[in-house]
């Protein structure tokens, strides 16, 4: 029995250092695993290693978002423009109309430059009425300036109509002639109407034969002799969209869901 107990004690003594060695080996293995998990790329000495920090990343994201919002607000402020007011007096057609009424040079609808109106030479020496002897250049200039100071075309036509009258001939040599027999007058310094020839009248005011014919036709259309107002562009037969179609379009637009705008002028 003593021998068996001695053998057991010896075996226990021998097994204790082996167990210690096994525990040391296991500890070394675990350390090796930790070293493998923490590689050289993760070491502090590695310059490429970056420590992940959730707080820093969240702060950077917030700053980026703030910068983007600032850029968007700046762009929106730059794109905001006030609606220009309508200025009909600066429209090309209205500018051309004012220049035409004043006898100045202007550009027509076909981009054609129309020369300014000038005081003509009057009639020739062969004129039977001797118009050049009745009115000097100063009086003719005064008539010319007064005519082109009239505000619009209607008043100019009225001026010509009141200084022109039709003549009824006692005998007509040609039948079916289209020639209009009219007498033209100018007032002198005393306000007396003096008969002048057609060429003198037209050259003093720098008018064309077409203008005279238009005034004659318009004055004949009314019994009183007053020039009928030109209704060009003033008719009431304009094409209009039916009110039912407009209402359906308004209802369709209102049915679209609305969202809040990303900027408001009141907040600026």
From TrEMBL:
The segment annotated Disordered runs over: 1-84
- Renumbered to this chain, the Acidic residues biased-composition regions fall at 58-70
Superkingdom to which the source organism belongs: Eukaryota
Basic and acidic residues bias (residue ranges): 27-39
Q: What is this protein called?
A: (apollo) hypothetical protein
């Amino acid at each position: 029995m003593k021998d068996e107990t001695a053998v057991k004690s010896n075996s226990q003594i021998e097994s204790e250092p082996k167990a210690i060695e096994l525990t040391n080996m296991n500890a070394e293995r675990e350390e090796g695993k930790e070293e493998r998990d923490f590689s050289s790329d993760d070491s502090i000495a590695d310059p490429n290693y970056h420590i992940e920090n959730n707080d820093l990343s969240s702060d950077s994201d917030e700053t980026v978002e703030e910068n983007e919002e600032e850029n968007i607000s700046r762009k929106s402020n730059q794109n905001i423009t006030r609606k220009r007011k309508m200025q009909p007096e600066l429209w090309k057609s209205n500018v051309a109309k004012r220049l035409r009424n004043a006898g100045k040079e202007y550009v027509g609808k076909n981009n054609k430059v129309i020369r300014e109106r000038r005081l003509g030479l009057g009639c020739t020496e062969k004129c039977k009425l001797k118009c050049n002897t009745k009115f000097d250049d100063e009086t003719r200039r005064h008539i010319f300036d007064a005519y082109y100071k009239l505000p619009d075309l209607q008043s100019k036509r009225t001026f010509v109509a009141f200084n022109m009258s039709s003549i009824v001939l006692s005998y007509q040599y040609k039948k079916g002639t289209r020639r209009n027999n009219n007498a033209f007058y100018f007032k002198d310094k005393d306000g007396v109407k003096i008969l002048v020839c057609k060429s003198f009248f037209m050259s003093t005011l720098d008018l064309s034969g077409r203008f005279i014919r238009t005034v004659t036709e318009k004055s004949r259309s009314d019994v009183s002799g007053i020039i009928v107002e030109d209704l060009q562009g003033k008719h009431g037969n304009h094409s209009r969209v039916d009110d039912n179609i407009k209402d359906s379009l308004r209802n369709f637009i209102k049915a679209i869901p609305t969202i809040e705008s990303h900027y408001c002028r009141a907040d600026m």
